[in-house]
Amino acid sequence: MGRARPxxxxxxxxxxxxxxxxxxxxxxxxxxxxxxxxxxxxxxPLPDLRRALExxxxxxxxxxxxxxxxxxxxxxxxxxxxDLHDAAAVALRLWGEHRQSAGLPPWEIVGLEVxxxxxxxxRIAEGxxxxxxxxxxxxxx
Length: 141
Hints:
By secondary structure, the chain is α+β, with helices and mostly antiparallel strands. It is built from 3 helices and 7 strands, in the order βββαββαβαβ. Strand 4 (63-69) and strand 5 (72-81) form a beta hairpin. 18% of the residues are buried.
């Protein structure tokens, strides 16, 4: 085994900040965004819808909670993305991309909210907005 270069790690070269300089996070690092996706359409049998939403939760590991009724559903989850535009783009594709694999109904997206983590926690602390996504899972309205 060869010796590592001084100042290098297994992940690559170390970087340093000059004394007195403030460290700034790179602006293009992913952030967490809280997403609420609302969908609706023609009524479907509740057991089929529940099964489809449970499969979606299995397929999409960040899914926190789903609430549903025969003709609409709300999905809430955290998305890791560089900016709001990226998080919203992923959210707008979620239902369509998983429709076949999860057996989701052919409903349309009727609402989308994407907020950053700080805004989400501020709303909860102030008593505004939806309650925290607990209990986690798939539940009727």
